[in-house]
Structure formats: C-alpha cells, structure tokens
Design a protein that fits this description.
This protein has 90 residues and is mainly alpha-helical. Helices cover 70% and strands 0% of the residues.
Length: 90
C-alpha cells in the first residue's frame, strides 16, 4: 500500500464508512427492514436511505469545496444532520 497516500484522516474516514456498513448489515440481519414512504418520492429501505445519504453527503462536501473557503467541519456537520434526517424521516 506504499503507492497510496494514506493520511490519518483518510484512514478514519474509510474505517467509519466500513463500520457504518457493518452495523447496518447486522441491524438488517437482526431486524429486516420494510419499504416505507417518507419525504422521499419513493418507497425505501434503511439501506436505500443510507446509500442516498452517503451519496448526497459527498455532493454536499463537493459543493462546499466549490463555493466556500470555510472549514470542511461545517460541511461534515451538515452532512451528518442530513444523513440522520434522511434515515429517520426519508
């Protein structure tokens, strides 16, 4: 892995994503989710909402980088809030 420029922040990010996927997999095995309709225009499961949340969080960060000079910690806070709202009410 010497060819990759891993930093501590990058490693933490990927470990957190892996942990989220493991927890969601275990939760799904313990309690299978049913499709439900929230504020999204389609019926979704927990896994669908997680995928949509992770993808939209990437876009939030990219938009933040493109439009502001502010710290990415703000984008992270917005992304976490969006992901939690999406998982709960999406």
């Amino acid at each position: 892995m010497g060819w990759m420029a891993w930093t501590q922040n990058t490693a933490i990010f990927f470990c957190c994503i892996a942990l989220i996927l493991v927890v969601m997999t275990l939760w799904e095995l313990k309690s299978p989710s049913l499709e439900r309709k929230g504020f999204l225009p389609m019926e979704t499961t927990r896994g669908d909402r997680l995928f949509i949340g992770l993808l939209s969080s990437a876009y939030i960060h990219l938009a933040f980088l493109a439009t502001t000079q502010l710290s990415l910690w703000i984008a992270l806070a917005i992304s976490v809030g969006w992901l939690l709202a999406l998982l709960r009410w999406g």
